[in-house]
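Give me the fold.
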Amino acid sequence: MLFLLRYDTERKSAEEMSGFFEQTIEVHREHEIPATFFCTGGAIDARDADFKTFFDEVKDDPLFDIQDHSYSHIGIGYEAGKPLDVLRQDYERSIACHERVFGRRPTGISICGTSGADGNRLQGFDETEKSRAELDMLVDLGIRMVNSHLIGHTESREFLNYASLGHPGVMGYPSSYSDTGWMNRAEHGDPMEYILGQITARAERGEPMPLMLHDWVAWLKAGDQKLSHVIQIVDHARSLGYELVTHVDCYNRKHLWS
């Protein structure tokens, strides 16, 4: 069973996020916690020195996988989303930030939530001609990993490939359990009781467990700045038999999705 931990890394305020990267490196190395950091180009631009220092420290460490989260938190796969040329410009701008600060292009993205601003989320990239074109656009930009987003498939549970849309080399990965809901807004009562219970339930069903953290929630809303909740979550997952992996680890295990 795989546990897929990620941070959507998007906060622009260097003052608010001071110390986050340093603490993250310390905790993830001490406890051997692999994670993927999906970074917005806007945050990279606003805090380029912080991101460059982070990257220089972790670039050769397999525990840390750095990928993209658009430039402006723009949404793809939405019923009333932005025009294709606007989406492409946003992603091109974000990829340029990765190249400038990290010296390399990302190969994965996490789809951004838009809080309803772009209409309802579609059921899959295969639902409309425009959504199919959105996936084509991402692939043309070099993206090979994106949320599992096809009609008839469960995004929160399945790995898949996009062969049905002409892209057999592109992996869809499970995505769910955003901490903006269960921790920041405490939508399910006590945040830790809820998420630990969900991990237990997944383990009992033998299902992969995706966990979507956000840099600002983990740092500003979790009760301390030690990432102690991350340690507690990981210890619980491991006690149930989960193996922690990054997104690029999953991509390299092609038997999972091809």
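The chain has one domain: 2-256.
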